[in-house]
UniProtKB/TrEMBL annotation:
<feature type="domain" description="Aldehyde dehydrogenase">
    <location>
        <begin position="28"/>
        <end position="476"/>
    </location>
</feature>
<dbReference type="InterPro" id="IPR016161">
    <property type="entry name" value="Ald_DH/histidinol_DH"/>
</dbReference>
<dbReference type="InterPro" id="IPR016160">
    <property type="entry name" value="Ald_DH_CS_CYS"/>
</dbReference>
<dbReference type="InterPro" id="IPR016163">
    <property type="entry name" value="Ald_DH_C"/>
</dbReference>
<feature type="active site">
    <location>
        <position position="251"/>
    </location>
</feature>
<protein>
    <recommendedName>
        <fullName>aldehyde dehydrogenase (NAD(+))</fullName>
        <ecNumber>1.2.1.3</ecNumber>
    </recommendedName>
</protein>
<dbReference type="GO" id="GO:0004029">
    <property type="term" value="F:aldehyde dehydrogenase (NAD+) activity"/>
</dbReference>
<dbReference type="InterPro" id="IPR015590">
    <property type="entry name" value="Aldehyde_DH_dom"/>
</dbReference>
<comment type="similarity">
    <text>Belongs to the aldehyde dehydrogenase family.</text>
</comment>
<dbReference type="InterPro" id="IPR029510">
    <property type="entry name" value="Ald_DH_CS_GLU"/>
</dbReference>
<keyword id="KW-0560">Oxidoreductase</keyword>
<dbReference type="Pfam" id="PF00171">
    <property type="entry name" value="Aldedh"/>
</dbReference>
<dbReference type="InterPro" id="IPR016162">
    <property type="entry name" value="Ald_DH_N"/>
</dbReference>
<dbReference type="InterPro" id="IPR044086">
    <property type="entry name" value="LUC3-like"/>
</dbReference>
Length: 484
């Protein structure tokens, strides 16, 4: 008879997790499946009392959790990773229904989740001794902040949250997870699994409406907010945190440029660039959003990227062959319809796709046509703004200095890449790009032990890696005189 712990849980009921208890709320709500528009399960709508109870439990738990060694806290995280893995297929199914991800895309998210869950426990906060002589020692160490809150978006509802949760816990903080109102279910299940692993109050989750975030950002018992979402909301979060001087990490929008040099192997590069522009139907902050192609290969590249994109199948969460899934929610779907309406109004030339049919849609689901815009003006909204959907411009460039200037012209600076067979040239160009992540011959490449975040209006601070771990702490200068 096996003595292995049973980490399996049911995926049919959804509750807040407060102090390791599954908790009802007076009011509930339902989201809809983006592939079918059918209502999903009831989920909690938290109020101020729920927030106060959760913060109180987290504050109490912090007093003992912070005293554990990093190695002991890491052992908890390893058990948690085991428990997530035991429920992995259920999470894949759930992400399909709530986030609109076809099976391949949902499995990819769980691959990222497990990578973070396995690698984060290997990180450690390290002390530095800038002075250490016979008279005195000065130590720089990192001490946990207290109660942390993660405000997590709907596009990668598990990956982006767990990248906040695990470093926060490893550093000695306690954590409250607030999922998007559009994707509450997976976070609530993750926290329910956490009740089998962590002491009460260490990891909690509260779902609700748009009113929940402000209750958490204003709460004096919360020490840090880590937010991933839009620039506009990020500015509101930062302003709300100012009154209590909360620590803040913001990972906001992106308008990532990819610069394609004239010496690339078009067939090889096109397949990668098309994937990185359109994966998850363009609903990733680090998707390629602007493709700058050297004029000498522009026509050949454009033809190839259109042909490649046409091969990607569109389908719902049950379609194992689908690449393009639906837009995750009606709000974003309607925003994109307005965005696409500019195609005819602004006389943009389409190489693929175009505006959706104006007639009432015959099928359910928030699907938008994959669209490629051929060399629009540099000041057009398809170049300047982030659509967050399956539409991307391809633009010509001639001069190296000019294309770097154009890539850097955005107020956003999340990521950017350069593609060339001449790697030293590409590195020289990439190092001039103003972004939190820069890549050569790749894009959107991430690892749990490498930090990511944005420059300019794409954010403040970074998640993941040693930098992300230290971001869940206050640095502390610690002086010791060796004689009294």
């Amino acid at each position: 008879m096996s003595t292995a712990p049973d980490y399996k849980i049911p995926f049919t009921t959804f509750y807040n997790v407060i102090n390791n208890e599954l908790t009802d709320t007076v009011t509930t709500r339902r989201t809809v499946c983006p592939s079918t528009e059918e209502p999903l399960w009831e989920s909690p709508v938290s109020d101020e009392e729920d927030v106060n109870r959760a913060v109180s439990a987290a504050s109490q738990a912090f007093q003992s959790w912070r005293k554990l060694s990093q190695d002991v806290r890491a052992e908890y995280l390893i058990k948690f990773a085991d428990a997530i893995e035991a429920n992995q297929q259920d999470f894949i199914n759930l992400l399909g229904k709530e986030a609109g991800k076809p099976p391949q895309a949902a499995a990819f998210e769980m691959y990222l989740v497990m990578g973070i869950a396995r690698e984060t426990p290997k990180l450690r906060l390290k002390e530095d001794k800038p002075i250490d002589d016979t008279e005195r020692t000065a130590i720089v160490r990192y001490v946990p902040l207290g109660v942390g809150v993660g405000i997590v978006p709907w596009n990668f509802p598990l990956t982006l949250g767990i990248g906040k949760l695990l470093p926060a816990l490893l550093a000695g903080n306690t954590f409250i997870w607030k999922p998007s109102p559009y994707t509450p279910y997976s976070a609530l299940k993750l926290a329910e699994i956490g009740t089998k692993i962590f002491p009460p109050g260490v990891f909690q989750a509260l779902s609700g409406e748009d009113t929940l975030g402000p209750l958490l950002t204003a709460h004096p018992g919360v020490a840090k907010i880590s937010f991933t979402g839009s620039v506009e909301t990020g500015k509101k979060v930062m302003a709300a945190c100012a009154s209590t001087l909360k620590r803040v990490t913001l990972e906001l929008g992106g308008n990532d440029a990819a610069i394609i040099c004239d010496d690339v192997d078009i067939d090889s590069v096109v397949a990668k660039v098309a994937f990185l522009a359109f994966v998850h139907s363009g609903q990733i902050c680090m998707n390629i959003k602007r493709i700058y192609v050297h004029e000498s290969i522009y026509d050949s590249f454009l033809t190839a990227v259109v042909a490649t994109t046409k091969q990607f199948k569109t389908g719902g969460y049950t379609d194992s062959e689908a690449f393009f899934g639906p837009i995750q929610n009606r709000m974003q779907y309607e925003k994109l319809q307005k965005f696409y309406s500019q195609i005819s109004r602004e006389s943009w030339k389409t190489a693929l796709g175009g505006e959706p049919s104006p007639s009432p849609k015959q099928e359910n689901g928030f699907f938008m046509p994959p669209t490629i815009i051929d060399n629009p003006p540099e000041d057009s909204s398809i170049v300047v703004d982030e659509p967050f959907g399956p539409i991307v411009p391809v633009l010509k460039w001639t001069d190296e200095e000019d294309v770097i200037k154009r890539a850097n012209a955005s107020r956003l600076g999340l990521g950017a890449s350069v593609w060339s067979k001449d790697v030293p040239r590409a590195q020289r160009m990439a190092e001039q790009l103003e972004a939190g992540s820069i890549w050569v011959n790749t894009h959107f490449e991430l690892a749990p032990n490498v930090p990511f975040g944005g420059h300019k209006e794409s954010g403040l601070g970074m998640d993941w890696g040693q930098v992300g771990l230290e971001g869940w702490c206050n640095p502390q200068a610690y002086w010791v005189k060796h004689s009294g």
